[in-house]
Every structure is written in structure tokens, then in C-alpha cells.
Amino acid sequence: NNNNNNNIAIRTTGFLNTPHEGTKLEFARGEQQRGQNVLLARLGFATPLFFTATLLSFVLYWGALLFPPFAVFFICAFISYGWFKGILYSFSALFIGVPRAHLYKTADWKQLGNDSRKKSPLLERTLGVSEEDGKPLGMAHPSSLGSVKEDYDTSATISKQRRNMDIPTWTSKLDNKEKRTLAEKFNDLRHVVIVPTYREPLNVLRKTLNTLVAQTCAKDKVIVVIATEKNDKEAIEKVEALIEEYSKNLLGLFYTVHEKISPAETDGKSSNVAWCARCVQHTILEKWNYVPEQILVTVCDADTYFDEQFCECLSYTHAQNMEPYNCTYQSAENEFPNIWMVPTLVRVKAVVDSINMLGMLSSKYAVPYPYVCYSQSLRTIMDVNGWDVDVVPDDFHHFMKCFFKKDGHFRLVPIFMLTGNNAQEHTNWFSAMRSRYRRAKRDAWGAIDLSYILSQWYQKRNVLDKHGAFMLFVDVIEHHVSWSSYFLTVMLGGMMSAWLNPELETYPFGIGIRAMALIAFGPILFATWAYIVCDFYVRMFLVQDRKYFEANSAPLWWQITSQVQWLLMPLADFIFAAVAALDAQLHMALWPKMSGYRVSKTVDRSNLEYKIAQRHIMPNGTWRNEPFLNNANINTNGGGSAMKSSSSNGLYHAIESDGSDARSERERNHGRGL
Q1: What is the pTM of this model?
Q2: Which alpha helices (H) appear in 200-288, and where do they start and end?
Q3: What is the largest CA-CA distance in the chain?
Q4: Do residues 362 and 330 touch, judged by C-beta distance below 8 A?
Q5: Angle at which helices 394-405 and 269-281 pack, to 10 degrees?
Q6: SS3 state of residue 18
Q7: Which helix (H) or strand (E) holds 643?
Q8: CB count, 10 Å around CB of 166?
Q9: Alpha-helical segments (H) within 282-340
Q10: Residue 517 in contact with residue 494, Cβ under 8 Å?
């Protein structure tokens, strides 16, 4: 059988409900825990709160009384460490991440994947690139022994033994040929995109599917699986509508229905994805006759908006990777799509988180972890037995699981493709703030994995790289402790210490602890300017033509004057970092089960009853508020829904099926803030 015949044969749709026979439920802490194991686990759950409480009590109370000089030094050092991280992330994003994102956006990944003689922006670590036909090109297929710039497909200088040792290969069952060269692997890879959903509006899912069918390889390589929950009574009806609308534009479109099998399962994305992946394995391997090495699995949220070259870029990165089964791929997640539709406190936190993600992917001194949308080979997923079903943060915990299953030989590979997710939006200010707080608490729940890290470290102590595992534990402790304690240290550390011990007003060198804390905090202004510049550049030049990105929907004068929002950053950090993290740590110490799991509600702006005002520029250049979709015309085209405000003469398209009209409007109105 040739590839074309097989593609036609498997381009189908339906319900997947049979897990792979070699899979089973996986638990991070065991399905049943008794005696000593329960005690050790509970001690591990309380570890984050213990570290945070010790640090805060030292800074705010007993440090000033017992060790005054050291308390002054520690407070100033901790404040300085915070702005050092801010400067590191913001400047890395500005001077490394943004140029690479621009390079990735303009590259022709299909061309690169089929000609290994061209230079790749993936491997070119300097900012200089070669130009050919106006497109940046990049380096040849590498060898793990060095930066080999010749095409290894034809080079006689690379011995056969070295090729067999260094280059990962697989044999496809579709044509019984070994895939060795860059082009062979690039064209043989297929993509499975898992979209977990729970009570998401239909048009939110449509927008995500629209960006998937817009992939340059959608019909030949992309299989979408919508992972639903049994408790979602409307899910089947929505999925059937999506299958009818989109299946003809994809290699496959399926859905699964997750139902709890064990009482130890935790509600949430991880258990849903675990069941979906098991069913996908059965279909991919047993029915379609693929091999695991051919499949790249991407897990995303229901409101994820992909670049149209995302899958091609991922295929190229994976085909170039000399250790493709010991890594997770992470794109540059951001929350710019609806950045002007959320409360100011939510917006400023979303901007910081988005730039931080780009900065962490760019800096060699940062330790990024998977977040929201990440990808792995199906071979990797099978090696680690999939996702655990008794955890809440699927991305962070799954990375930890892979790290220990691979004996510490596991890493994150950045992909500088900007992938958008909506910031927390709601029908009113209070509900949006509450939704963002719940998400922050859910993210902070990842601190519960400290006990998992300790237990895995102990079990694998004879084979694990002890230094690497220790540094991983320290990094996780630092992340969660600084998350919950930095604001209180900055804002209250100097004040409380001076009040408890007036002698500290003479430390150091007669300056005083409060003045010294302000001096130590000063350099954060440099990071703030870098965040502002990076924010503007990304919105103006990297996502201005992206589907469903309304990053420039406000006029330019408002985007500039609204930068006073940065004065609210301390308050946003207090609510969505310190309070949320302390809440999560206290919760996990007292009752380490996140009951009542709630997903962040996604607003369906296609609903005519949605009355939030939409701000936009009128054709005459004036800026006004009017109810969203007032006197709206609703059209359907090709299965998607197109909604156009008649009052604006078609200037603003809320949801479109192909994106062509919206993109042309954005191009015509670029510079007018649209």
C-alpha cells in the first residue's frame, strides 16, 4: 500500500471508546494508600506550606528579633532576586525570543523539511540568517556529535556506523520503508491534536477547529480528537455538529467520552487526556497500522489558536531532534487574543505571564516547564504509560513523570511559534476576577508534586543523576515559595522588620531597612520597560494578522495611555500570585484533594444575549462603545459561523469560517488600531 491510499482509508470520523490493550490507569500516588505511605504523602503535601510559612515568618517577625543583620541582608537579597528574574525573562524575550518568533513566523517550514541543505532558524543560534526569496532559511540536519552543516543525506564524510548510532530512524508499516533522511521523516510524521473540553460553548470549539483546519498540512497529516466528559450532557451534540462541519478538511476527526473508572481519579484535564490517549493508541496502532514513532501528540485547551504552520514546524523540529523521545515540545503560549476584553488587573497579569513564557523559552538560565499546549511523540507517551489520573496540573506533573521515567534524561525543547489562549473573560468584572483567581489557584496546585518528586527521587536514587534531580527539586521549591511569598516580602518585609526592631533603621551603613528595600526594588523599572516594549512589538508585528487575535482592537492612543496599568501590577501580583498560592498550599496541606474542580468559563461572544460592550474604530476614525453584535447578521459558511456587525459596515468580524475576510480587513486597517 502507498501513503496516498492509506491516507484515504483512514480519513474518517467517529467515537473512540476502546483503550489500547497494553494500557491501564496510572496513578501518581497509587490507587490506594495506607499506613506509612499515607503519612509520607501528607508530609510531602505540607512541604510547600512549611517552606513558605518559615520564610514569611522569618521576614515578617522572628528574623528581625533574632538575627537583625542577616534579616536585612536576606530581605534585600530576596527583593533583588525578584528583579533579577524579571530582567532576565523580559530582556531574554525582547532580544532573543521576539527575533526568533519573527523568524519562525516568516520561515517556510515545508520547504525546510524537504531540503536539508537550507539553513534553519531552529538551529541558528545567532540572529543573523541567510535570505533567499525573502524567506529566512537555516542550518542542515545536525549530528549529535557537533554542528554538522553539510547535508547528511548525501555526505560521504559521515560513516555508516555513525549514522546508525546517531540518527533516530523508524520503519513505517504503510510502505515498509525505513525513514532516515530529514525529508523522509518530515513527510512521514502525523499529528494527533487532543482538545479536552467540558461545557465549552460550541463556537469556542469552532474557533479552535478553524485554526486546525487552516494548518498547511491539515488534510494529509492532522487528526483531531475532542476529549469530552460524560457529565457534559451537551457534548455529544456539539461534537456531532463539529464532525459534520470540519471532518472533510482533516485527516480524521474523532471524540472520546471520559468516565471515572476509579474513585481515586481526579476531575480535570489530566484524567480526561489519559483516557483519550489510551483510545487513540488503540486506533492509531491497532486499526490504522501506524508505528508510535510516526505520531506526534499535541495537547491543548479548548480555546487554543494555532499558527497555520504550527504542525509543519513541529514536524521539522522533531525530525531534526537527535533525541526525539526524551523531550516535550513547548510553543510560546500567550494570552493576547482577547487582551482588551478583560479587566485591567487580569490584563496586566496576562501580559506579564505571556512575556515570561517567551523569556523562559529563550534564556539558557531559565527552567521552563510545559504549560497549556505541549507536544510529545506517541513513543514517549507509551514509554511513560501516559498521564496520571489523580493529579490536577496535567502539564507540569506529566513533565515530572517523564523526567523520572526516563531516569532524568528528559528536557523541554522550545518552539518559538506564538500559540494563543484567551485570558479569563466573563460577563462582568467580578466574575472575570473570580475566574482568574481560580485558575491561579489551580496552577499553584502544582506544588503538590513536591511529594511526588521526593518519592520518585528516593525510588530511583541508584540510577538517577542526583545533582540533576536535586536541582530540579530546588527549582520547584523556589518557584512555588517565591510565588507565594515575594509580594509580602517586598511590600511588608522592610516595614514589619523595622517596626519590630527599630535598630534596623540603622542597617546597613545607616541607610535603614525600609530605604534599602526601596533601593533594591528600583531596578525592576528596567524590566517593566522591557515588558512594555515586548508587549507592543508582539501585538503590532507578530500577531496582528493572526486569526482570532484582537490584540490591537483598541486604538493606538488608548494602548499607549493605558500603560498606567503597570501601577496595578503589585495588586495583581498580590491577588493572583500570593493569595492564590497561599490558598492552594493551605488547602493541599489540610485536605490534599482539589474537589469541586472548575474549569475557567469561556465567554461565547457569538451569543446574541452577550451584552458586554465591544470597543472598535468606526470607518470615520471615531471610537465608540456599542453592545456587541447589536443588530447583528448571522451567516454560516462552510460549516463555520460568520458574524458581522451591520452597524459597522462589515468592519469587524467576530467569528469567521475561513479567516480571509477578517485578515483582509485587519491588513487594510493596520495602523488605525483595528
Answers
A1: 0.82
A2: 202-213, 218-221, 235-246, 269-281
A3: 84
A4: no
A5: 60
A6: coil
A7: strand 640-645
A8: 15
A9: 310-320
A10: yes
Whether the pLDDT of residue 152 is over 60: the answer is no
Residue with cell 484524567: 271
- What's the CA dihedral at 99, 103, 105, 110 to 10 degrees? -160
Residue among 602, 603, 610 nearest 645 (CA): 610
Task: Write the secondary structure of 327-393 as one string of H (helix), E (strand) and C (coil).
Answer: EEEEEEEECCCCHHHCCHHHHHHHHHHHHHHHHHHHCCCCCCCCCCCEEEEHHHHHHCCCCECCCCC
Interval 80-139: pLDDT, tens: 888 889 999 999 999 999 999 998 999 999 998 998 776 665 554 322 333 343 333 333
176: which 3 cell numbers?
515498509
Neighbouring CB atoms inside 10 A of 8's CB total: 10
For the record, the C-alpha cell of 361 comes out as 523559552
Strand bridging mode 304-305 / 411-421: antiparallel
Sign of CA dihedral 288, 289, 294, 297: positive
Query: Per residue in 605-637, pLDDT tens?
Result: 654 333 333 333 333 333 333 333 333 333 333
What cell numbers appear for 551 in the block? 490584540
Residue with cell 560513516: 159
Return d(Cα 129, Cα 327) in angstroms, integer: 26
Distance between CA 359 and CA 98 in Å, rounded? 9
Task: Determine the distance from the C-alpha atom of residue 608 to the mean position of all C-alpha atoms in its chain, rounded to a whole number.
Answer: 31
526 neighbors 87 (Cβ within 8 angstroms) = yes
Cβ pair 3, 175 in contact under 8 A: yes
Q: By the 8 A CB rule, do 331 and 417 touch?
A: yes
C-beta separation of 72 from 337 below 8 A: no
C-alpha of 383 from chain center: 23
Give, in degrees to the nearest 5, the angle at Cα 116 between 110 and 122.
70
Going from the C-alpha of 174 to that of each of 5, 170, 177, 357, 494, the distances in angstroms are: 9, 12, 8, 39, 67
Helix (H) or strand (E) holding 615: strand 613-617
Residue 668: which H helix or E strand, with range? Answer: helix 660-668
Q: Look at the block and give the residue holding cell 490504522.
A: 288
How many Å apart are CA 622 and CA 555, to the nearest integer? 10
Residues with Cβ within 8 Å of 371's Cβ and at least 6 positions away in sequence, in order, are 330, 333, 357, 395, 396
C-alpha cell at 303: 480555546
